[in-house]
Each structure stands twice: as structure tokens, then as C-alpha cells.
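Exercise 7. Given the encoded structure of a 156-residue chain, write a plausible sequence.
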């Protein structure tokens, strides 16, 4: 066989191999490459979608945090106002109680002054009777002169 015949046979075998490869081997490889390209594109699209969802979720979180901060600040202000109101009420009640205690003490002092005056009147009356008794050098009967002592008490 000559080189030309061998070369022609090799070309025929090569063309059959190329035809076989193009018909049976190449379509599954191309299909696998297309699927891989599609998977990568889907992954990139999902990553972009996840990134946009993440940014929108971050915005919602920031909005909720801002809302929570304003709500907390409002509650703190309300609590402070309520505390001031309670303090003012307590001051008012304490003042009221103090006034009641002072009034009670004054009333009690008045009663004690009245009692002391009564006791002093009785002592002065008794001393006056004793003094009169000693001046007269005779005994004065207390039952007889009770009316006199009562008048003396009222005059003092």
C-alpha cells in the first residue's frame, strides 16, 4: 500500500470519527455546557435577588429600629411626666399631712394651756383660802364657801 492510499484511508477514518463525534459525543457535551452556563446564570440572578432582598430587609430593620427608638423615647417621656405628677401629688399630700399635724398639735397645746389655767386657778383658789384662813386664824369650811371658790375661779 502506498502512502496515498493510507492517507486516504486515514482521512476517511478521521472523517468517520469526526462524524461519529459530532453526532453522538458532541451533543451531550454541548448540553452539559449549556446546563452549566444556565446554572451559573441562575446562581448569579439568585445572588442579585438575595442582595436586593437583603438591602430591603436592612431598610425594614432600620425603619423598625427608628420606630422603636421613637416609641421608647415617648414612653420614657411619659414615665418622666408621670413621675413628676406622682412627686407633686406626694408633696401635696405631705403638705396636707403636715398641716393636719400642726393643727392637731396646736389644738392639743390649746387644751393643755386650758388645763394648766384650770389647775392654776384651783391652786390659786386653794392658796387664797389658806391665806385667808391664816389671816383670820380660824378654819374656813370648804363646803360652805364652795360657791365663793367657784366665783373666784371664774374671776381668775
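Solution.
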Amino acid at each position: 500500500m502506498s502512502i496515498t492510499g493510507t492517507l486516504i484511508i486515514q482521512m476517511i477514518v478521521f472523517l468517520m470519527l469526526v462524524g461519529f463525534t459530532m453526532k453522538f459525543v458532541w451533543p451531550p457535551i454541548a448540553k452539559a455546557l449549556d446546563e452549566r452556563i444556565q446554572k451559573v446564570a441562575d446562581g448569579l440572578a439568585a445572588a442579585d435577588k438575595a442582595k436586593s432582598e437583603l438591602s430591603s430587609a436592612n431598610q425594614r430593620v432600620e425603619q423598625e429600629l427608628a420606630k422603636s427608638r421613637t416609641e421608647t423615647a415617648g414612653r420614657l417621656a411619659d414615665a418622666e411626666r408621670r413621675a413628676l405628677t406622682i412627686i407633686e401629688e406626694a408633696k401635696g399630700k405631705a403638705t396636707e399631712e403636715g398641716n393636719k399635724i400642726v393643727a392637731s398639735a396646736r389644738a392639743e397645746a390649746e387644751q393643755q394651756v386650758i388645763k394648766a389655767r384650770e389647775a392654776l386657778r384651783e391652786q390659786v383658789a386653794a392658796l387664797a383660802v389658806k391665806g385667808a384662813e391664816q389671816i383670820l386664824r380660824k378654819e374656813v369650811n370648804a363646803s360652805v364657801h364652795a360657791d365663793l371658790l367657784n366665783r373666784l375661779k371664774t374671776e381668775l
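Remark. The helical segments are 3-136, 146-155. Students should compare their own answers with the one above.
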